[in-house]
């Protein structure tokens, strides 16, 4: 059975309830991000429905003691550690800023902690809202603080316009994103502004493997990390 929760928290919980009342459903695979799966977790537990989460990195997903929930994606701490390591070793960043969506606060906190442990100061922490369109306030802060790398813990729908507006304002920081930005829509939303952006993905990706050729043959498009998991 295939259901679409549109990656919305209330819809995710409702669809788990629908799966739970079908006696032919023995388990489920899915969940694209933290917010929708955190909203559905209690329903998964209540239903006793084994659930393999693909995209949820939030520590709370498997720290609640629900025996039915298993994660295929890494935890926030692992994502943050990889991001900080890349910022230090490859980007050689000295001044880091963090922009967060409240639903991804756990990832932002983990990144901030990992950066400080590595001796890197976080010079600015900003917040964006879901479906926000004008990022003038965040762009002004980033211009004033002169960050050379910005870690974005949030969705592609906000990261794309923020990046585009930052470039239009003459800012040249490197954008480093969490798994939610591992999405082709980043380029569609930000255009050329997305160049020199980096994303910590959910899975190792080897385009030469038989899986990728098989997936393209089946789906007609390249596999992303969620498909690989």
Element layout with pairings:
Blueprint: H1 9-20, E1 28-30, H2 34-47, E2 51-53, H3 60-63, E3 69-71, H4 76-89, E4 96-101, H5 105-117, E5 122-128, H6 136-145, E6 149-153, H7 156-168, E7 174-177, H8 185-190, E8 198-199, H9 210-219, H10 225-228
Parallel strand pairs: 1-2, 2-3, 4-5, 4-6, 6-7, 7-8
Task: Report on the architecture of this protein.
The structure is a single chain. Helix 1 runs parallel beside helix 2 (34-47) and helix 4 crosses helix 5. This protein starts with 8 loop residues before the first helix and ends with a helix. The protein has a 5-stranded parallel beta sheet with strand order 5-4-6-7-8, sandwiched between helices. It has a 3-stranded parallel beta sheet with strand order 1-2-3, with helices on one face. The protein contains 10 helices and 8 strands. The protein is globular and about 60 Å long. The chain has 229 residues and is an alpha/beta fold. Strand 4, helix 5 and strand 5 form a beta-alpha-beta unit. The mean pLDDT is 94. The protein is 44% helix and 14% strand.
């Amino acid at each position: 059975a295939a259901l679409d929760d549109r990656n919305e928290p209330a819809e995710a919980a409702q669809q788990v309830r629908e799966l739970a009342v079908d006696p032919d459903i023995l388990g489920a695979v899915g969940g694209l991000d933290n917010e929708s799966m955190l909203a559905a977790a209690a329903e998964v537990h209540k239903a006793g429905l084994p659930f393999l989460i693909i995209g949820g990195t939030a520590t709370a997903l498997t720290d609640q003691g629900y025996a039915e929930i298993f994660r295929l994606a890494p935890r926030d701490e692992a994502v943050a550690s990889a991001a900080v390591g890349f910022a230090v070793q490859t980007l050689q960043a000295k001044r880091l800023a963090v922009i967060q969506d409240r639903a991804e606060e756990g990832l932002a906190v983990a990144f901030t902690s990992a950066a400080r442990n590595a001796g890197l100061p976080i010079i600015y922490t900003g917040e964006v809202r879901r479906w926000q369109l004008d990022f003038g306030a965040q762009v002004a802060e980033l211009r004033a603080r002169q960050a050379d790398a910005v870690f974005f813990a949030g969705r592609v729908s906000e990261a794309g316009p923020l990046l585009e507006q930052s470039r239009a304002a003459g800012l040249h920081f490197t954008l480093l994103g969490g798994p939610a930005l591992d999405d082709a829509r980043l380029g569609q939303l930000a255009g050329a502004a997305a160049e020199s952006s980096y994303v910590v993905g959910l899975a190792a990706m080897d385009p030469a493997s038989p899986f990728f050729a098989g997936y393209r043959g089946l789906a007609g498009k390249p596999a992303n990390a969620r498909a690989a998991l």
